[in-house]
């Protein structure tokens, strides 16, 4: 199986600090019997052109470590999965017996682009439309992704405003939000006001961006046979649609955990809940929002990818002020929380 170090022995490990590099070397020497060059062991600095990446073969007990700007990409394209140093340390704790799931962070509602060809559909003043966008977008949700995992195949955002195209809606009558004018091509805002005139031409324009995003996610499932997908969102209590507010009742959580019980194991929920309890965050399952993103290829049975998925919606009051502006210090706390959650969950069966 591609990217399975237990089968072919190969793995690529990326570090960020000299301390992480020393710990990787120590593990390879003490746990796996590698012979490491003295000059590498004695080095306490990181060269400016260092790729910060080891290509490791656990079976032959050999490694490659270059200072060349193109090596990282070459390693990944060569079939060895790229692990962060923290993932590598977790694998070592488990005796190199478990192949961790590939963590993927999906951020579909933080985009702020407005395609030029779609703008004529807007039927309210531009200032009002942009205000709705600010209220309904997942402000800075991409900042929830731990730095070790940001970029490449591990992070996929959607750059276009959800008011123009919402890639997490179904297309067709099975989409519940269509009845409220909030399907994949929004006609109305959260308060029921019409913000766009939706035509077949506009839907075709939105569908182009929708299909491109879903095709990327489907290809991801072919590249990585075991995936742990975090569907990251935020929400504002003030902009909850009325039907969702009624369903949620009086208790609005700090964190909503969205589950699709076919793709969200109970053990995954349990591990996440433990971490949320540690920091005293009120959490609820499928309230106020429900479900989680699953790529079409998996939903339709066109991929053999073993994928588990969970949605995490953070209440904006956790990290935004009364004007909706994000606080970087509070965002860092969420990022650290997410790192603990990822490390807890990547070895999920």
Mean pLDDT: 90
Helix content: 25-40%
Class from helix and strand fractions: alpha/beta
| Distance between the ends | 16 Å
Rg = 22 Å
User: Which residues form runs of ≥5 with pLDDT under 50?
Assistant: 68-78
Annotated CATH homologous superfamily of the largest domain: Zn-dependent exopeptidases
How many discrete domains?
2
Assembly type of the shown chains?
Answer: single chain
* Sheet of most strands: 6 strands, mixed
CATH A-level architecture of the largest domain: 3-Layer(aba) Sandwich
Topology as H/E string?
HEHHEEHEHEHEHEHEHEHEH
CATH topology of the largest domain: Aminopeptidase
The CATH class of the largest domain turns out to be Alpha Beta
Counting DSSP E segments of at least 2 residues, the number of strands comes to 10
Strand content: 5-15%
In short:
The chain is built from eleven helices and ten strands. It is an alpha/beta fold.
Describe the overall structure.
The protein has 11 helices and 10 strands. With 349 residues, it is an alpha/beta fold. The protein has 2 domains: 5-99, no CATH class; 103-345, 3-Layer(aba) Sandwich (Aminopeptidase). The strands form 2 sheets. Strands 6-5-7-10-8-9 form a 6-stranded mixed beta sheet, covered by helices on one side. Strands 3-2-1-4 form a 4-stranded mixed beta sheet. Strand 8, helix 9 and strand 9 (283-285) form a beta-alpha-beta unit. The longest helix is centred in the middle third of the chain and has 24 residues, at 200-223.
Map the helices and strands:
Elements: H1 5-8, E1 10-14, H2 18-32, H3 38-42, E2 53-57, E3 62-64, H4 71-77, E4 82-84, H5 85-93, E5 102-107, H6 126-136, E6 155-157, H7 200-223, E7 226-235, H8 242-248, E8 255-258, H9 266-278, E9 283-285, H10 296-299, E10 306-315, H11 328-345
Parallel strand pairs: 1-4, 5-6, 5-7, 7-10, 8-9
Antiparallel strand pairs: 1-2, 2-3, 8-10
